[in-house]
Design brief:
It is built from 10 helices and 12 strands. By secondary structure, it is of the alpha/beta class. The protein has 2 domains: 3-100 and 250-279, 3-Layer(aba) Sandwich (Rossmann fold), CATH 3.40.50.10860; 103-246, 3-Layer(aba) Sandwich (Rossmann fold). A 6-stranded mixed β-sheet has the order 2-1-3-5-6-4, sandwiched between helices. Strands 9-8-7-10-11-12 form a 6-stranded parallel β-sheet, with helices on both faces. Bound molecules: NADP nicotinamide-adenine-dinucleotide phosphate (NAP). NADP nicotinamide-adenine-dinucleotide phosphate (NAP) binds next to helix 4, helix 5 and helix 9.
Length: 280
């Protein structure tokens, strides 16, 4: 019998995940299908009952359900609990188990696409939202030397810095967005990560950094935004001589990790990337 997986979120705009996952299932010879489901916040618990009743093999979770789904699941992995968010659920004999593959997708992309190991590196992360939480926890797990966070809401960056710093015993601080303190952190950083939506379609002329912030040439700039592939930040980073990487690799690798959790098979990453690029 055909097995079903899918994506739940609200509202659900255009997603490349169905094209990427369905291409992988075909390549692996699996009779599986991946479909998008728009689920409003008030319907989340009902949707989970439906997933169980329909024996769905699992699903991905996106905004706004990544955090609110946690208490509704039967179990959650230790990593997803530390992050406080779930982006992948597996139906294990009727038990819905939550995972987080966003952070691992980022680290895999950093190592494989940008050829950079975060161990002992100084990292600056712009934005302290849901994606940043997963990234910061995984950077800490991967033994970065220091983490500096900034957000438009100072207290959001301070809260995440304090949580990650105390949980992992890491040098982790928060600085004011676009301040001299941010410039100082960038000057000593090896990696700068944009974990804000700034620069994403349709606002492609926007940059999360003010014009007065300089990027040293030895920096790797990783932009989680993948649409467009070349954001304003990436363009400016290239002009400054920095190495750059777009978030498409993270998108593909978090999806590949989810496929592995559901099927137990190794995902065809190159093919999934091609399918994602085509669907964008
Ligand atoms: P989010 O929860 O909205 O968090 C973004 C945070 O960045 C918000 O707190 C926002 O503050 C802050 N921010 C906005 N402009 C800023 C600036 N100039 N400097 C510092 N902080 C700023 O969003 P998210 O879920 O974490 O996602 C962030 C981005 O990552 C999105 O573009 C998403 O599409 C992308 N993403 C990509 C992947 C991938 O696989 N490549 C995976 C997950 C997410 P305000 O709320 O005050 O504006």
């Amino acid at each position: 019998m055909k097995k079903s997986v899918g994506l739940i979120g609200y509202p659900l705009g255009h997603s490349v995940s169905p094209a990427m996952q369905n291409a992988a299932f075909k390549k692996l010879g699996l009779d599986w299908e991946y479909l998008p489901y728009e689920v409003a916040p008030e319907d989340l618990a009902g949707a989970l009952s439906g997933m169980r009743a329909l024996h769905m093999a699992g699903f991905n979770v996106t905004i706004p359900h990544k955090e609110t789904i946690v208490p509704l699941l039967d179990d959650v992995t230790k990593l997803a609990r530390i992050i406080g968010a779930v982006n992948t659920v597996k139906n294990q004999d009727g038990q819905l188990v939550g995972y987080n593959t966003d952070g691992a997708g980022f680290i895999d992309s950093l190592k494989e696409d940008a050829k950079t190991d975060p161990k002992d590196k100084n990292v600056v992360v712009l934005g302290a939202g849901g994606a940043s939480r997963a990234i910061c926890v995984m950077l800490a797990e991967n033994k970065v030397k220091s983490l500096t966070l900034t957000d438009l809401l100072d207290e959001k960056a301070a809260e995440l810095a304090s949580y990650v710093g105390s949980y992992f015993g890491l040098d982790c601080s928060a600085v004011v967005a676009n301040s001299q303190d941010l410039q100082t952190a960038i000057d000593k950083a090896d990696i700068l990560v944009n974990s804000t939506p700034i620069g994403m379609e349709p606002n492609i002329e926007r940059n999360p950094l003010d014009e007065n912030i300089r990027l040293p040439a030895n920096l790797l700039v990783y932009d989680l935004v993948y649409n467009p592939a070349q954001t304003k930040l990436i363009t400016l980073a290239k002009k400054s001589g920095c190495k750059t990487c777009s978030g498409l690799g993270m998108l593909v690798r978090q999806g590949a990790a989810a496929l592995g959790i559901w099927t137990g098979k190794e995902a065809p990453i190159a093919l999934m990337r091609k399918a994602a690029e085509k669907a964008l």
